[in-house]
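Here is a typical sample entry:
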Amino acid sequence: MKKNCAIGLMIVVILIGISACQKAGEIIKENLQTPKVSLEDLAVTGVSSSKLDLAAKLGVDNPNPIGLNLAGLDYALELSGKPVFSGESSEGMSIAASGKSTVKVPISLTYDNLKKVYDLASGKDEIPYRLSGQVKLNTPIGPMPIPYNVSGKLPVVRAPKIAEVGLKVRNLSITEAKFDVSIKLDNPNSFPLDISKLSYQLKMDGKDFSEGEMESASIPAKSEGELTIPVSMDLMAVGNWAFNLLQKGSSDYELTYDAKYQIKDWPVKQQEKKTGTLKIKK
C-alpha cells in the first residue's frame, strides 16, 4: 500500500513538473521576440589571378533580455541576377541579450564563375548583388530560423597583374652590389590602385637572391605602373654565384609578390607567384 502511494506521489510530481514546463514554454513563446538580421557590410578582402575573396558581415539584433546561440546559417549570393556562390556553416556563437552581434560569412569566388558576370558588366563600375539565406538560432523554445534577403551594389574588382619584372645594376664591385628591382603592375580596374604595403622575395637560377618591401604607391585607373625597390647586397656574405649572375644578361626567376591595397575603403590582400626570364640591365 505504501509502495503504491509513493509511486502515485511520484507520478503527480512529474505531471506537475511537465505542466509547469509547458506553461513556462508557452510564456517564453508568447514573449520571445524574433531577432532581426541586417547586412552591415559586404567587402572585398582579397584578390588573386584565380579568385576574389569577399566577407559579408550580418548583424543579428536580439531584442530579448536573454542571450541566444547561433546554431548555423546558410547563404546564397547572386551577382547581376546570376547565382555564383552558396554554402552553409554550422559554426556556433553567442548572440548577446538586448543588443546586436555580428556574424561573419567568408565567400570565395573563382574568376571562372565571375567571367560571365563580368562580361555582362563590361564598361560598368558596379554590379548588383543579392545575398539571401537563413540564420538559425537555438532558443529556449527550440530552433528558430530567421530568413534574410539583402541587396546592393558591389564594385567590379579585377586582380592587378604583374606585367614584367626587371633588374638594373647601379653599382657592382667584388664586395658589394647595388641594384633596383622593378615590378610593372597592370591595374585593370576603373579606380586607382592604392598600395599601402608591398613585399617580395626573388629567386634567381633557383636560389634565394633578394627580398625587400616598399610602402605607399598608387597606380591610376586602367594604367600600368612601375614599382622600383632599391637593394644593396653584401657579395662577400652571399658568395661568388651572385656576382657572376649579375654579370650575365639574363636569368630565370621566381617572384613571390605579397601586397596590401586600399580598395573602396577596404583593406585587400594579394599574393601571387610569377616565373619567367628576367633581363639584367647595367
Notes: The first strand starts at residue 36 and ends at 47.
